[in-house]
Amino acid sequence: LTISDEGTVVTLTHTGNTYHGVTSVESGATLKLGKDNVLGKTSELSIAAGSTVDFGSSSQTVGTLNSDGQMISGDTGKLTVTNGGTVSGANSDFHLEVVLNGSTDLTLEDADALGDGNLEISQADTDLVLSGISGTDGAAAEYDNAVSGLGGIKLSDNANVAFTGSNTFSGDLM
User: Fold this and answer.
1) Residue 40's pLDDT band (boundaries 50, 70, 90)?
2) Percentage of residues in the chain with pLDDT exceeding 70?
3) Which among 89, 80, 83, 81 is positioned nearest to 108, based on CA atoms?
4) What is the DSSP letter of 170?
5) pLDDT digits (tens, 9 = 90+) for 115-149
6) Using alpha carbons only, how large is the chain's radius of gyration in Å?
7) Alpha-carbon distance 99 to 148, whole Å?
């Protein structure tokens, strides 16, 4: 499923989707998710720069999450990611709880990439990777999301991050 063209808005509301492919939002388009599980079994959710996915207050499960665009949501709901991915840019209007459930790491390239929602890492061999993140003039960037679960956190590419959330994860901090 590819949604493209500047200004195009597509809203999904059918909860019986069994689709297994890649969902791509490109070229300034917007995808609105009107109910829980409308993405079916999407193997990858890809959001290009300048494009938006509006999760509303829904709960969704995706395979890989790759986003250079905007993710926005209401205050309730959950996003489960089963195959990691990479999220770039700040998503300050994203408030869903995120569950990383699989054996592939999720890489964030901005301290606010997952907005202000809590993150649960459900597998011991899976990590949240904070890559190349730092604050102004090399100061530490604040990562204030609460992180829980069995996995750990890795810093890569000279990331300089201060963890200010209520963290209870049991994996390593590397």
Assistant:
1) very high
2) 100
3) 89
4) -
5) 999 999 999 999 999 999 999 898 999 999 999 99
6) 15
7) 10
pTM (global) more than 0.70: yes
Which tokens go with 153?
């956190």
The Cα 130–Cα 142 span in angstroms is 11
Dump pLDDT digits (tens) for 62-119.
999 999 999 999 999 999 999 999 999 999 999 999 999 999 999 999 999 999 999 9
> How many angstroms separate the first and last alpha carbons of the chain?
37
Torsion of CA 11, 15, 16, 18, to 10 degrees: 70
The string of DSSP codes covering 26-51 is -TT-EEEE-STTTTTT-SEEEE-TT-
> DSSP readout, 69-99?
SEEE--SS-EEEESS-EEE-S--TT---EEE
Q: Hey, which residues does 80 pair with through a beta bridge?
A: 61, 99
| Measured distance CA(43)–CA(81) in Å, rounded | 10
- Within 8 A by CB and 6+ apart from 102, the residues are 81, 82, 83, 84, 123, 126
Burial class (CB in 10 A: 0-12, 13-18, 19+), 153: buried
